[in-house]
């Protein structure tokens, strides 16, 4: 009898995980990619709506800098209350995926916007501000295709040996070489990318990825450690061998936690510091 009850409970749980809230379900709206999203049955309704909206963002239905439908329109689309939609939008805005503009509506966030442009930049000058320091001058040292070794392939969720782009460049601020970074990108997502395009683009690199390749970085994970500059690194950064550098290893993700970039940066620490605001 006990075994029978266990199997019955499992069956009920399996059935419940394939359905949404019976009274208010985003699937009822049947709106393209948003209606295809599978979400856990026990998640709050606003989280289900958030997931449906996230699917629309990922599918490109709403593009960077474009206004999304009003709360009223979305409530009708998903057959839920405006309050539920508002809470879902609040979550996406807190994640810097959407931006509310007073009196204008809600827009898809873009790395072209000033409040988002420096979102992933944690290196700050010891004196002045990021804005006063001006944009970085970029010098590409190396730009090539390569076969991804096993660890890099794992980080990018590729097969070992798949082709990736490797870019090594030096970023200078106010004429002083400050950052030596290596960037690895899946070739399939960045077809046609050239060294000249990366050098000539005047805005943030992530804004170029977003505009020209439809790849939007929405979050990143970083690991930091202190290292000493070897001879090659010191020469590239215009410092002495053995100088203290801050190494930042980053994996950047687009929607639904798909990794799309691995980056390792070596930062001079004599004029800049790493700043992160918590809470």
Q: Can you give me a brief rundown of this structure?
A:
The chain is an alpha+beta fold and 279 residues long. 31% of the residues lie in helices and 28% in strands. The strands form three sheets. A six-stranded antiparallel β-sheet has the order 4-5-6-9-8-7. A two-stranded antiparallel sheet has the order 1-2. Strands 3-10 form a two-stranded antiparallel sheet.
Summarize this structure as a short list of keywords or feature phrases.
globular; 279 residues; 6-stranded antiparallel sheet; alpha+beta; two-stranded antiparallel sheet; disordered N terminus; 31% helix
Molecular structure report:
The chain is an alpha+beta fold. The protein is 31% helix and 28% strand. The chain contains ten helices and ten strands. A hairpin with a 3-residue loop joins strand 8 (244-254) and strand 9 (258-268). The protein has helices at residues 2-16, 45-59, 71-78, 82-94, 114-117, 130-133, 150-155, 195-200, 205-213, 231-237; strands spanning 98-101, 105-108, 123-125, 137-147, 163-173, 176-186, 219-228, 244-254, 258-268, 272-274. The model is unreliable at 1-40 and 114-118 (pLDDT under 50).
**Beta fraction of the residues?**
25-35%
Unreliable stretches (pLDDT < 50, length at least 5) are 1-40, 114-118
Instruction: State the shape.
Output: globular
How many beta strands in the DSSP annotation? 10
The helix/strand class is: alpha+beta
Determine the number of helices (DSSP H or I, runs of at least 4 residues): 10
Helix content, binned percent: 25-40%
